[in-house]
Amino acid sequence: MKKIILLILNFCCFFASCQRTEPEVFIIPKGFKGKVMVVFEKKNGVLPKLEKNRRVYEIPNNGILVTQSMITEGFMSRQFYYIDSLNQRIPLKSFKNEKEAESYDEIGIFYSGRAGIYGNSGGLQSIIYQEFIVSDYKNLNSFFTEDYKKQFHKKLEQAVGYEIK
Hints:
Blueprint: H1 2-17, E1 24-29, E2 34-40, E3 49-51, E4 54-58, E5 64-66, E6 78-83, E7 89-91, E8 93-95, E9 108-118, E10 127-135, H2 146-160
Parallel strand pairs: 1-4, 1-6, 2-5, 8-9
Antiparallel strand pairs: 2-10, 3-4, 6-7, 9-10
């Protein structure tokens, strides 16, 4: 019995110590497909709105949002929406892997939770980011081509206002 109680206490302590991030909502222009990147800790960035204790990231048409806020770490609680011309939110599913999509044509979020540093780590012009891809499974690989990566890199440099090496 003591072993069970100790096991339960250890389990509770473990989960109590796990950090949860501030819940997040991503608002994406309807019809957008491609990589979405949120760049953190930039003075020229926007402050995210708060809605029902959730950070709201309104993603621009280029897929790159530059924000002043700091990135959070821990277990994520995220919601993803397309937004139409009438400001109606259309929920997007988040797929943990490619096989979760009900069909090759179902639009959703892939690779949510990817984060890192773009450019020279710790450099003045490094970029702290999180990213994901909005796509259907059928076209998912098109966002990993060298051509797409180069185009995205140029858009990223325009969004932050300087050259990234």
